[in-house]
Structures are given as C-alpha cells and as structure tokens.
Amino acid sequence: MPQLVRTTPGLDMLWAIWRRRKWLALLVFLTPLTATAGAVGTLPNTYESSTTVLVQPQRAPERLVGPSAVEEPETRLRTISEQILSRSRLLELITQFDLYPDLRRRASPEAVVERMRRDIQLQFKEARESSGRDATIAFSLKYRGRDPEVVAQVTNALAAFYVKENARISEQQATGTTEFLSAQLEEVKRQLEDQEQRISDFKQRHTGELPDQQAANLAALERLNLQLRSISDRQLRVLEQRDELAKRAADDPAAADAVAARLATLRRDLARLRTQFTDEHPDVIRVKQEIATLESQLAAQGGKRATPDDPAARQLKDSRAAVEAELTALRSEEQALRRTISTYEQRIENAPRLEREFQQLSRDYAGAKELYATLLQRYGNAKIAGRLEQGIQGDQFTILDPALVSREPVAPKRSRLLLMGFLVSVGAAAGAAVLAEALDTSFHTADDVRAFTSVPVLVSIPPITTVADLRRHRFLFGLAALGAGVGMIAINAAASFLGRHL
What we know:
By secondary structure, the chain is of the alpha+beta class. It is built from 14 helices and four strands. It has a four-stranded antiparallel sheet. Residues 1-8, 60-70 and 303-308 have low confidence and may be disordered.
C-alpha cells in the first residue's frame, strides 16, 4: 500500500504519534536506561594514587668524570621501566598485594600482567637547560586499582623499585666500567712493553745502521775514502821506488840474486792476484809486465852472480826488501780499509729500508702509547665516577611526594554515564516511535483517508468497545506490563552483574 501523507499540523501530529506509540517509546526508553542504571550502580570504584620522583643530575662536572661516565636520565629511566614492567616483576607485585583476584581466577597470568601494565602510567617532566636541551628533572608514577590503600602501597612499591634499581645500575655500571678498563689497560700495557722490546731488539741488531746514525756513517765513509786515497798515493810512491831499485839491480850485474829473489816474489804475487782477479785486471797486468822485465834482465846478465860479501849488493837487497815489506803492509792496510768501506756502504745502502721498518715500529709504539694514555685517563675517570656513585654524586632518584591513600574514586563518572544513558534512551525511544509510525500503513483519522483517495467520506464511526473488549485489553496490558517489568529486572540484573565483573 502506498505511503500515507500526513496532513495533521506539527504539534497535533506529534501528540497523535505519542498517544499511539507511547507504550512502545516508553518500553524502548526504559530498556537502555535500566541497563545503564544497573551497570553504573554496580560498577566498582577505581582509585588512583600517584607519586613524584625527583631526578637529581650528577653534581660532578663531565670534564672530571669523562663523557663515558655520563648517562642520559631518559635512557636510564626507560631501561629501568622495561625491567620493572617485566612479567616476573609484575607477577611478584600481583602476588605480594593480591591484585586482580577475580581476573586471576578466569584469565591467564599474561592477561593479568597486561592489565596491570595498562593501570600503570609513567609521565616525564622536563625542563629546558641553558644548552637548549630538554632534560628530565622528575617523573610521576600513577597506578589505578579497586582498593585505595593497596593502590597507594603498590604505587610506593613501584617508586621504590625505581630508586633501588637506579642505584644498583649506577653501582654496577661504575664497577663494570672500571673492571673492563682495567683489563683493557693491562692488555695495552703488555702490547706497549712488547713494542718497546721490539724497538730495543731492532736497535741492537742494526747498531750503526739506524736512521739517526746515517750522518755519522757518511762522515766515516768520507774519512775512510780519504785514507784509501792516501794509501793509494803511498803505494804509487813505493812502487816507483821499487821500480827504481829494480832498474839499479838491472844495471848492476852483481844484483842478479836480488833480481831472482824479486822475480820469485812477483810470481807469488801473480799467483795470489789471479785467485782474486782476472788477467785483465790492472794489477795482474802490471805484475806480469814486471815479471817479464825481470826475466829479460836475468837473461841479459847471462847468469852472473855477485859474491855474498859485496856491500853494494847487500845494500840493494836490503833496500828492495824494505820496499817490498812496506808495499805488503800498504796492501794489507788497503784491503782492510776496503772491507771497512764496504761495511759502511752496506749500512748506507740499507738505511732507507731500515728507516721504513723503524718508522713502522715507531708508529706502532706511538699508537700503543697513545692508546695506553687514553685508557689510563678513562680508567681514572671511571674510578672517580665509581667513588662519586658511592658518594651519591651521580644521577639519583629521590621520592619527592610519596603516594597517599585516595579518598575519592577517579572512576567511574556515574553522573556522566547516567546522562549519556538518558540521552541514548531518549534517542532510542524517539527513533522507535518514528520507525513504527513509518511502518504503520493503517488509517487513523478521516483526514488520512481523504488525503489518500478522492472518494468522499460520508460518515465516521468511532471505535465501539464492549466490556469484554475492555477486560481483554486490561488483561493484555497487565500481562505486557508484567513481562516488561520482568524484562527490566532481568536487564538490570545482567547489567549489574557485568558492572561488578568489569
């Protein structure tokens, strides 16, 4: 059937709707209002206690204890919070104060712990320092529960946990840092001693070859070269003298024996030189030429010999022997000088390589020494920090305002909940009445019929109610009222039960 178009003026229409739907609206209004009243009336009171813990920063300057001994209070607070809100610590508190007895009977320990975490609130209070950084100066700790005395006790216990845990962490941190730095210091000290021993061994192995001795080596080499040139000049003069004596011996037939002796000496020198040099060496060539010359002299003398008592022959022989002895001494000295020069040249040649090795050893030693000095300073700072912690000089937590027993509950807000329930009930009743009226397609007045059809309305017959109809109506109304009352009682009981067990 098409939707009716109501023509009754506004207030009259509302009054007509109220007369027709008042019992439905009243029933819908009472249902949520009864549930709200039952729940609000039996909701347990929730009490809250709070305490304030003052964070006192360390009174020792950072330059004294070092940056390693300074820890941000926020970092330590969050670390302690994680420990205090751990499952084991909260279960200990729950057992100690017999918290959440109903919830513990029907839920798992994890759910009980999570409920307590939600009931604990931690709020930091910060202040702006002169450096522009926000620093935590205090924090408030709040806890909610059913029993006000137990709530205050739990709040104070949590605050005491913070203070105790902070002291334990401070002492443990100072002790642990000192022990760690002490072990590191011993290890670096052993490394430093090893570096010192390596440098000492290096200096002993390469005495005279060290970079700082390079100038002395060059000066000694120059001095030895000068001595070598001096000996070479003396050898030349001795060789000239020997050649002169050889010529005198060649001109004097009486000196054949001296020439023969000289020839034997030269042959021995030639054999010795050939063991050291090749035939192209200047000394070998010179000795060979001298041997050839003396052999020619002997051949020219024809084997003439001087008598042993000839004074001239003896003098010439002695002179030649002295020259040969001097020449032999000069050659020995030359060989010794050349060996010494070779040693100094080898030192100078090895100097760059040894200098690199020595620089590497020096860098390792300097690095170990610097690390040792740094660790020594940190170790001293850690010991100072430990003494400061023991002397209550570090970051300290002090309970400023202990938690007190709350006299007024913080929840539930009964007046606010009742007002919200009343508004919801009114809205639900109005909505039910409007919905029922919209779904109703029957005619209630002659005007409704005239608005629906163009057929004229001839007569309007009012409802005819008999005594039996009246009795039946009263019976049904009473039965409905009884059912509604029982329903309201049941709804109130259910809401009260739920409210008590929230």
